[in-house]
Amino acid sequence: MIQGEGISRLVDVSVACRYLAAQCQVKSGNWTEAMEMLGDSNPFAGSSNSGSKIPNSDGGIKVEASMCYLRGLLMLRLNRADRAKECLLEALALDVKCYEAFELLVGGEMMGIDEEWALIEGLAYREQAQEQAEFVKLMYTTRLKKFKHHAEIDTARKKLMEEYNLADNPDVMFGHADSLYAEYRWADCFAITSRILDLEAVHPSTLPLHLACMTALPHLHSRLFLLAHELVAHEPDSPSSWYAVGLWYLAVKRYGEAKKYFSSHLPQLFIGMEHIQLSNMQLAESHLAASVALCDSDPILFNELGTVAYENRKYDEALKHFSNAVSRAKEVRGSQSMWATLYVNQAHAFRKMGQLLEAKEGYMRVLEIEPRHTIAIASLGITHHLLFELEDAIARYHESLWQLMLLVYSIVRFKLILMSPSTQSPG
User: Fold this and answer.
1) What pLDDT is recorded for position 329?
2) What is the Cα–Cα distance from 277 to 298, expressed in whole angstroms?
3) pTM across the whole model
């Protein structure tokens, strides 16, 4: 990365290095810097080596397509949904094997039914995927919404099951179950969802469909009751668990109790948290707002609202939410260590607002709870630095580096233990 007379940075001469560097910036949370490295648009568009008709010579995914996908992901993080969609469509047009772009477009509900169909019909499968062209198109077809093109979707699924021997593939089976449910064939749908969950205990797309079938079939209500209890016992933080409880009350016509569970703030909260993980801040904010309308006392909810505001660089609003979360956390019984994340987030917001003494106090409070909290140690070093307390800053920087080295050593040591002949099973 040295730059001088006659020497260029790798990111300036290698597209692959530029893409890798942008990924590093994304992992570090430096979205603006990553976008500056990638550019606001595809710089290779229109060149002789770019276009949907040109396959990748090594058979992998084109770096150009991967860069377009990453650009689209960054656009979502920066709340530019329309541009994100354009970038993701460009990524898929450049390389049909860029499944991440397809998953984000279809799984993220970024397109309508007709738009989805037009997309998969217009992709250059033959030019880009060669021998796998038909397979890729069939897999994409089975993922589409089931309200139109029933015959084409059924044909695609049957080909995958019969010609590609994927009859027991959970994703292919889910497509079949989804179609059956849309046709009100609940018993047939339940048989398939049961088979999927036997093959793969955790298949997030299948469980809600499985529960809905049990609700629609009276003879399965007792099993729904037992399953709901099991889900709540093992996964109390999962929206599906409380959805199952609400469905059971609905099935036995106890509508008041059903409404209570369907109206719980938790499903909206968890959906909002998932959208934060997907960097879709607009949808996250919408679900969190719906959650806070149902419950205005959950500190975790206010922490997530603060996270959205922080990621949108609205630091004053973030500080308000984080402070609200901290004050409500004090009312919750339990160990203070549960709330270290709330305190460190509040301190981050103080630092961004220039309230350095408050930030310093916040990081110190975290370290009273968790003395080895690496993020708090490093952030405290930054705060000392900004306050021109240089000796304290250097000490904290060294401490955070030492904690990081210990973590790396532990990981390497663990891998060596796993690789040791003494830990291997007899041949």
Assistant:
1) 77
2) 20
3) 0.55
Residue 302 · residue 271 · CB < 8 Å: no
**Cβ 170 vs Cβ 207: under 8 Å:** no
Query: Please, what's the largest Cα pairwise distance for the chain?
Result: 79
Tokens of 360: 């310093």
Q: Which tokens go with 152?
A: 């084409």
Beta bridge partners of 4: 7
Question: Per the structure block, which two tokens stand in for 350?
Answer: 């103080």
Long-range contacts of 326-329 (CB under 8 A, 24+ apart): 326/299, 328/297, 328/298, 328/299, 328/302, 329/299
Pick the closest to residue 194 from 172, 218, 214 (CA basis): 214
Rounded distance between C-alpha atoms, residue 360 and residue 351, angstroms: 8
The two three-digit tokens of residue 137, written as one number: 């198109």
State how far the Cα of 198 lies from the Cα of 182, in Å rounded to an integer: 22
Residues in the chain with pLDDT < 50?
1-7, 334, 420-427
Domain ranges of the chain: 1-110, 184-263, 302-423
**What local confidence, expressed as pLDDT, does residue 249 receive?**
87
Q: 302-423 maps to which CATH number? A: 1.25.40.10
For residue range 402-415, list pLDDT tens digits in order.
877 766 656 655 55
- For residues 282 and 77, give the distance between their C-alpha atoms in angstroms, rounded to a whole number: 9
Question: Would 1-110 and 302-423 be classified into the same CATH topology?
Answer: yes
Question: pLDDT value at position 427?
Answer: 34
- pLDDT of amino acid 49: 67
Q: Does domain 1-110 have CATH number 3.40.1010.20?
A: no
Exposed / middle / buried, residue 118 (Cβ in 10 Å: 0-12, 13-18, 19+): exposed
* Whether 95 contacts 67, CB under 8 Å: no
